[in-house]
Specification:
With 388 residues, the protein is an alpha/beta fold.
Length: 388
């Protein structure tokens, strides 16, 4: 009986050791998976948005897609020192059909072949590409605010993720949805979590980028809690103060459309001339506030620190997917100063970034008569290599 008892003790010790080893292995594996998102986020240090091309365009023909942005642009992006691009994609032109119950989406083979070639051209240069689902407002609102639209949104992602499941996960990332708007944060959190689960079922290796409601801004991010998926990066967009970055932008609030030559940094003294003869009385109050808040790099830093603290408390990687200033009416030197302050603030906090955008109204470059010209002031503000 004594020998049997000793054998039982030995067995118990073996079982205990094995259990401890398995527990340690589980911790190591979990830690490695947690570290994966931070590893992937490290590939998103300096990026540029490729907009008005596969999204936000009136023309998605093969000819325009082949010419608006091309291999020479990708090479320039690489040579300037970017390590990734964010490719805005309107899902509608990619969809060949949707079932009557909205649960099955069929992708258009020709449209997907063109997108595949674009992704290949970008990644072959060593650039990471973020596939940003960036629909027009009606499809986006339906996707987040109606049951049928949400079902279709899920079915699109199921097909899209399956299509890219075999792509290199170090080079191709998925972004669930650009700037959720209209939908409340609680509903969006549930929809995003469900979308991520469906994506993960099709593409277990890919890194996914999530964001908060409220146009994907910092306030929406602060209301969000991370999903139960460790391979997720969290994104925010920052265009504050809008009085500067969106002055004259025709799609913005009515008072912003009327603004011209709003300076940065701000102070009551700098804003006083604009208040003396405002083009729109509705602009007086926000302009006054903009001057009183004395926007500069310090104010910017305090705002972004809120997002950074949110990410630190939850141990998740953070990335700024958009920032920029409309170039038509902002004083050029002030625009470069704002971009530079934003870039330096993000980098000082260890946050990777994507400027909006490459060649459109917030652009880094201008393309005219077959020639591409880099805005040297913005390139310098972004800390890029000096363009030739």
């Amino acid at each position: 009986m004594q020998s049997v008892g000793k054998m039982q003790d030995w067995e118990r010790r073996v079982v205990t050791v094995v259990a401890v080893c398995l527990a340690m292995l589980a911790v190591v594996r979990a830690s490695a998976q947690d570290d994966l998102a931070f590893h992937r986020a490290a590939h998103l240090r300096r990026g540029i948005n490729l907009s008005m091309w596969y999204a936000q365009a009136q023309d998605y023909s093969a000819d325009r897609l082949a010419s608006y942005t091309n291999a020479a642009d990708f090479q320039l992006v690489h040579d300037l020192g970017f390590d990734h691009v964010r490719l805005s994609i309107n899902p509608v032109p990619l969809i060949a059909g949707v079932s009557a119950d909205h649960k099955t989406t069929t992708l258009d083979p020709a449209a997907m072949a063109r997108l595949d070639e674009t992704v290949h051209q970008i990644t072959s240069l060593g650039l990471v590409v973020v596939l940003d689902i960036h629909p027009e407002t009606p499809w986006k609102h339906a996707s987040t605010m109606t049951d049928e639209g949400t079902t279709e949104f899920f079915s699109f992602w199921t097909s899209f993720a399956r299509h890219y499941a075999d792509s290199d996960p170090e080079k191709v990332y998925f972004e669930v949805l650009n700037e959720p708007e209209g939908v409340n944060g609680f509903r969006w959190a549930g929809e995003q979590a469900r979308a991520i689960a469906l994506i993960r079922a099709q593409a277990p290796r890919q890194t996914i980028i999530a964001t908060g409601a409220g146009w994907g801004g910092i306030d929406g991010l602060l209301q969000l809690e991370p999903v139960r998926d460790p391979n997720v990066i969290y994104s925010f967009h920052d265009y504050e103060p809008m009085e500067f970055t969106h002055q004259g932008a025709g799609w913005s609030s009515k008072y912003l459309v009327t603004l011209r030559d709003v300076p940065y940094p701000s102070s009551p003294e700098k804003i006083a001339p604009l208040l003396a003869a405002p083009s729109d009385p509705a602009a007086v109050q926000p302009l006054t506030r903009y001057g009183d808040e004395r926007w500069d790099a310090g104010v910017m830093s305090k705002r972004i620190d809120q997002a950074l603290e949110w990410a630190k408390q939850r141990h998740v990687p953070l990335w700024c997917g958009e920032f920029g200033a409309y170039r038509a009416y902002a004083p050029a030197a002030d625009r470069a100063r704002w971009v530079g302050d934003m870039r330096r603030t993000l980098e000082s906090d260890g946050i990777g970034w994507d400027m909006w955008d490459y060649q459109a109204s917030f652009g880094l470059v201008t393309k005219q008569d077959g020639k591409t010209t880099v805005d040297a002031g913005i390139a310098q503000a972004l800390g890029l290599k000096t363009p030739r």
